[in-house]
Amino acid sequence: MSHTAHIPSHRKPRQRASKSALRAGVAGGVLSTIAVAGAAGPAQAEPVTQTIEMPTITSGISTAVAASAQATQQVALDLETQANEDAAAEKAAKAAKKAHAEAVRKAEAKKKAEAAAKAKAEAEAEERAERASRTSERTTLSASAGSSDSGSSASAPSSSSSNVSGSAASIVAFAKAQVGDAYVSGGTGPNAWDCSGLVQAAYRTAGIDLPRVSQSQSTAGTQVSLDNLQPGDILYWGGAGSAYHVAIYVGGGEFVGAQNSSTGTVQRSMDYDRPTGAVRVL
To answer: Where are the beta strands (DSSP E) in the chain?
Structure first.
């Protein structure tokens, strides 16, 4: 026995060598197996060349979708057509209604125009007849006044209109001939008057020019008492110089005056509207 046989370090390396050899053999076998498998793998694998066809399922769906779209479009067109027809019918109905209303309006307007024309013609005829009557009356009165002026002497003044002569007769006759005429503010005839316009026109028939307004007419002559009036005297309402209304005394306690727009030119008793004073121009 070697002198080193009892030294453990000398025995252990032998064991390690055996284990190492064993391990090397195992590892070599595993690696050989892997190598063989690796070498055999590529040679045994075959590429997949078969193509699997899937059934076509979209053709039927496309046809159904197309049919549905076409149906929807047709419904939309039908609705649009109906809407257009309804709008056209409504427009036509409105136009017909408007035309009917316009026709009714024109018919009514024509009827009113015809009635107005007829009334105007009748009024004009009546006015012409009235003017003719007044002209005849004025001519007769003027002739009577002229005959009286050509006499030897004038009759004495009287409160009775039937005995009036001269200029007073002409004034009274003119005033009475205007009874029934309209009252218009600022009117000076021939068929519409205001109070001072009528007095001025009546005195003009006797060749006398009076002021235009009632204030001036109320001081155009001599102030006289209401108890001592003569036909042709000017009656006034309000103060002398500030009168707001005038009329002509025609005798018998009556006067003629263009009163207002409601009554027009009237012949009334002095008791109807008692004047404030009177002035005598003749």
So the answer is: 182-183, 192-193, 222-224, 234-237, 245-251, 254-260, 264-269, 277-280
pLDDT tens digits for range 218-251: 999 999 999 999 999 999 999 999 999 999 999 9
User: Quick one: 94 and 125 in the same domain?
Assistant: yes
**Which domain, by its residues, includes 173?**
162-280
DSSP string, 183-240: E-TT-BSSSEE-HHHHHHHHHHTTT-PPPSSHHHHTTSSEEE-TTS--TTPEEEESST
* 169 shares its domain with 274: yes
Residue 233 lies in a domain: yes
Q: What is the domain count for the chain?
A: 2
**pLDDT tens per residue, range 247-256:** 999 999 999 9
pTM above 0.70, yes or no: no
